[in-house]
Specification:
The chain has 154 residues and is mostly helical. It has a single domain (3-146), classed as DnaA protein, C-terminal DNA-binding domain (Chromosomal Replication Initiator Protein Dnaa, Chain: A, Orthogonal Bundle), CATH 1.10.1750. Helices cover 65% and strands 4% of the residues. The protein contains 6 helices and 2 strands; from the N terminus they run αββααααα. It has helices at residues 3-23, 41-55, 73-89, 94-101, 105-120, 124-146; strands spanning 29-31, 37-39. A two-stranded antiparallel ribbon has the order 1-2. Strand 1 (29-31) and strand 2 (37-39) form a beta hairpin. Helix 1 (3-23) packs across helix 6 and helix 3 crosses helix 5. The longest helix has 23 residues, at 124-146. The chain is globular. The two termini are 24 Å apart.
């Protein structure tokens, strides 16, 4: 584990601890039956928010997408990427994601179509943002499997 990955992991752990103190939400990583690593929606939300906060300091007091109806471009884009990753990569249902972020399933469908359209036209900003979020998730998941504090449920 290199120092950059270690520092990212440390920052995420501090962020998780802060969230737990403020909202009493405990975050875990768990395994499905086929030993494929899967993130909970809470975990995925906080990783995407961590990326948003690291690039946009004006969102430093934001701890969840839920109950946030702001329409600022950066926040909306991160929320759409969250919906895309949760549905297309981790297999969560659109209704489940919608309930989680405080919208209905049609907003999630629109978010997935929007991100797919960005990928189709090779929008540089969105693909860069998506790849940085994916790298953050992969670094975190890789470190989480080596971290003895996080239980692995099989």
């Amino acid at each position: 584990m290199n120092t950059k990955t270690n520092s990212i992991y440390r920052e995420i752990e501090e962020f998780k601890d802060k969230v737990y103190l403020n909202h009493k939400v405990k975050l875990y990583v768990f395994f499905k039956e086929n030993d494929e690593l899967k993130l909970t929606l809470n975990e995925l939300e906080y990783l995407v928010l961590f990326q948003l906060k690291s690039t946009n300091p004006e969102y430093r007091n934001l701890y969840q997408f839920r109950k946030t109806k702001w329409r600022k471009q950066a926040l909306v884009l991160h929320r759409q990427i969250f919906s895309y990753i949760a549905c297309c990569e981790y297999g969560y249902g659109k209704s489940e994601i919608g309930r989680f972020i405080g919208n209905d399933h049609t907003n999630v469908i629109h978010a997935i179509k929007t991100i797919t359209n960005y990928f189709d036209i090779n929008d540089r900003y969105v693909t860069t943002l998506y790849s940085s979020i994916k790298k953050l998730i992969e670094n975190y998941v890789g470190d989480a499997t080596k971290n003895p504090r996080i239980p692995n449920i099989t």
